Amino acid sequence: MGSVNLLITGCAIATVDAAGTEYRDGWVAVSGNRIDSIGEGTPPDFGPDVARIDGRGCLLTPGLVNTHHHLYQWATRGLAADNTLFEWLTTLYPVWSRIDEKSVHTAATGALVALARSGCTTSSDHHYVFPQGGGDLLAAEIAAATEVGLRFHPARGSMDLGQSQGGLPPDSVVESIDGILAASVAAIDTWHDPSFDSMVRIALAPCSPFSVTADLMRESAALARSAGVRLHTHLAETIDEQEFCLETFGCTPAQYMERLGWLGDDVWYAHAVHLDDEAIGAMARTGTGVAHCPTSNGRLGAGIARTADLVAAGVPVGLGVDGAASNESSSLIEEPRNALLYARAVGGPRAMTVRTALELATMGGARVLGRDAEIGSIEPGKLADLALWRVDTAAHAGIADPVVALILGSAPPLAALIVNGREVVRDSVVLTVDEEAVGVQVAAAQAALVGE
After folding, report:
1. In 10 A of CB 336, how many CB atoms?
2. Single pTM value for the model
3. Which of 31, 193, 365, 409 is surrounded by the fewest CB atoms within 10 Å?
4. Residue 108: helix, strand or coil by DSSP?
């Protein structure tokens, strides 16, 4: 690596490395977009030209990793507030059928700003609604991520099973298999960057068992594996989905995925709430991952995922905020706390520790996205994706353990967010875009979509 250009000093550090290394008074040196070195106490003299961030009163963690989102939903928050998942979907599909390139860019920018302010440095997105004539929606959200400055894993979603064929979505928002596969190839060829410090990687993501055909699932898997990209889908989110699969396919959602070849260390499922022991065992054996979305699951009354059992079995588990229409705050730092509380609510006080919750939000997410060699922990040689949390406020006074303060206390102010070596947030203000202007644009986009 080259010379050190950024030094963060005087902070507690939770590295989330394999040994669980922590420092009470530590420093981290950054060279370009990589972590150069880390240590306790007074750092070496790296010269006078090094930019410095005073971390006193703060906790430094790896940047948080969001493994499931629907960014376009930022412009449709607050709707169908008291509905089940299927009721919520049927209410919102007509609204979503009106999205276009402009509204998606606006919504994605607003959602990514919220993620950045909540400590997120890497986000996936599952975009599966492509109305005819809507423009290049994938390019619109990639442009938004570039502007905000987050590392981005857009999953080119799809639906080909409309209402006329027994699916849930209206026919106006489904595509043909040939069109989906052609668009998927184009997305990979245009945007996917497999390099170590990539800022954009593509995945393929047919939406769910009740909105896509088996043929689309199989062909998407074959295409993804030939191109070396990952696979993502919703699975086992609700009892309604379980009943749909049993009635339609004669098996559980997890058994259906296995039948279609959708198990493997290149696959991750969103939600995975309703799994039996057989499903968890199969996922553990194959390295199939889970994006656990506790806040959204609570908002929609979907149930409580067996997160402690998944972790104990060795299933890769990360956290996700899910779409903003089912998690209006979309604050990633709330997810480890909610994951811990949900796990303890059903499994007792030892079902999940605070440090396991932090690991799910960082290394767990990196593992789910296939990037655990690059991000997710603070170690020399890894990418400089870092979140510096202020835990010396009145809200956290008296909590001696800074990791406990972060996970169990109120969401702390974000002193700084570093993505790929670049400062994106300072003192809870996003530096890369005008937040107030984005807010005005989002309000206008929602008014246009819902007809107000």
Report:
1. 27
2. 0.97
3. 193
4. helix
What average pLDDT does the chain have?
96
**Which residue reads 């994706």 in tokens?**
385
pLDDT higher than 90, residue 452: no
Q: Among all chains, which residue has been given the structure tokens 């990209």?
A: 229
Contact 390, 415 (CB under 8 A): yes
CA distance 49 to 71: 39
Q: What is the pLDDT of residue 187?
A: 98
Q: Per this entry, what is the length of the chain?
A: 452
AA letter at 117: R
| Burial state string for 283-292 with b = 16 or more CB within 10 A and e = fewer than 16 | bbebbbbbbb
Could you tell me whether strands 6-14 and 58-62 are parallel, antiparallel, or unpaired per DSSP bridges? parallel
- Asked if residues 24 and 69 have their Cβ atoms less than 8 Å apart, the reply is no
Farthest CA pair distance, the chain: 69
Handedness of CA 123, 124, 126, 132 (dihedral sign): positive
Name the packing angle between helices 435-450 and 85-96 (round to 10°): 100
How far apart CA 354 and CA 345 sit, in angstroms, is: 14
